[in-house]
Write a structure and sequence with these properties.
Chain lengths: ~240, ~150
């Protein structure tokens, strides 16, 4: 079987490494890949946002399964496109990817279905956002609505920092179109953990527990990043948590 | 976000986390491909995944300046030496090949992942890999996994 892995980060190198161990697999392509994936797969110079290019490659080369790593092509509709062309693809539809692609959408969905989350409000107007910050006080969290590679979350310790973040996002457009609106939410205390599950849209298969380290410096200090390290298993995810999840 | 066995959802991911995928996939014993295929076909029937008992820790080595702007093209030394350490796997992220050398080409450059019989041992393995690798201005956290030890 031929497999195409879309992406070129550490995640995709790990996916290629794991997929390469499967007896079902004869050939792996990785687009665009990196020097690490090149040792186990054939790197293909197609960027992750060129979903048409990826689709014609998969068709032209008899790819049996495409595995999508990053969020960007998912929000561009790579899964919908591949499916419409009769190609098997691991990754959610564009509509489902909005769960990650828009923080406002995701928060509204959590509110609708009673999923426990931080209190929040969404704004596209700078003055209304600032008024909300003043009303709620600090510490408070300001999030870019769209995708920002994990960097669109500002943990503001003071109202001034929060206002500066709102100005950066809505006025100065530091995050471009991703920052057309902001989600402002309650500052939660505690320990962050990650819980992943495979799904086909109906059935759910959970993975082991893990914990990420979002901030750049030791002791969870400094700005958020895409992630500076992770481990598994994570004892913070107790059986009590799991049964609730 | 978890406090006193109670949790609130911070956000959803619609794909594998990065770097969480590195330690998770290292620990996964089951063949990944049938699971991915079943998900794609809408017929996920696997009831449970098999995991290695061992723990895994991934330490991200980043370019100086990240998450703000950072330089590219610095030559990375020691990847082979790190991979030669028992239980260490170096996953590439923001790297490129240039004249037979591996150079930095992104903010998060490498995910140095290590095995251990528990998290403490995996931390030791992962950091032994990190210490074998160097480039001009490499930065990384020295406390990855420590929260697990406080429990």
């Amino acid at each position: 079987m031929k497999i195409l892995v879309v992406g070129g980060g550490g995640r995709e190198h790990a996916l290629v490494w794991k997929i390469a161990q499967s007896p079902l697999v004869d050939k792996i392509y990785c687009a665009p890949g990196n020097p690490g994936t090149a040792e186990l797969a054939e790197n293909i110079a197609i960027t992750v946002d060129d979903i048409d290019g990826l689709c014609s490659f998969a068709k032209g080369n008899g790819v049996d399964l495409t595995v999508v790593g990053p969020e960007l092509p998912l929000t561009l509709g790579i899964a919908d496109l591949f499916k419409s062309e009769g190609l098997a693809v691991f990754g959610p539809s564009k509509a489902a990817a909005q769960l990650e692609g828009s923080k406002g959408f995701s928060k509204d969905l959590m509110a609708k279905y009673g999923i426990k989350t931080a209190a929040y409000a969404s704004f596209s107007d700078r003055d209304e956002a600032v008024a909300y910050v003043r009303e709620q006080g600090a510490p408070i969290v300001v999030k870019v609505d769209g995708l920002a590679a994990g960097k669109g979350v500002i943990l503001a310790q003071t109202e001034e920092e929060a206002v500066a973040a709102v100005d950066d996002i809505l006025v100065k457009k530091v995050f471009g179109d991703a920052g057309d609106s902001v989600v402002i939410e309650e500052f939660l205390t505690g320990e962050e953990a990650s819980f992943f599950a495979f799904t086909d849209g109906k059935n759910v298969l959970p993975l082991a527990s893990a914990q990420d380290h979002k901030q750049i410096f030791n002791g969870d200090k400094g700005p958020n990043t895409g992630g500076m390290g992770a481990y598994s298993p994570a004892p913070v995810v107790t059986d009590v948590c799991l049964s609730d999840l | 976000m978890i406090e006193n066995d109670d949790f609130k959802v911070l956000e959803f991911n619609a794909r594998f986390g990065d770097p969480e995928a590195q330690p998770l996939l290292m620990r996964l014993k089951s063949d990944l491909v049938p699971v991915l295929l079943d998900c794609a076909r809408g017929e996920l029937t696997t009831a449970e995944l098999e995991w290695h008992d061992r723990a895994a820790v991934c330490v991200v080595m980043a370019a100086s300046g990240y998450p703000a702007s950072y330089p590219k093209g610095d030559t990375i030394e020691g990847i082979d030496n790190a991979n030669a350490i028992d239980g260490v796997l170096v996953f590439h992220a923001g790297t490129a090949s240039e004249d037979g050398k591996i150079v930095t080409a992104g903010g998060r450059v490498l995910g140095v992942t290590g095995w251990g019989y528990d998290v403490a041992a995996a931390i030791e393995t992962a950091y032994s890999g990190v210490k074998a690798i160097s480039w001009n201005g490499a930065q990384y956290r020295t406390d990855i996994g420590q929260k697990a030890l406080k429990r």
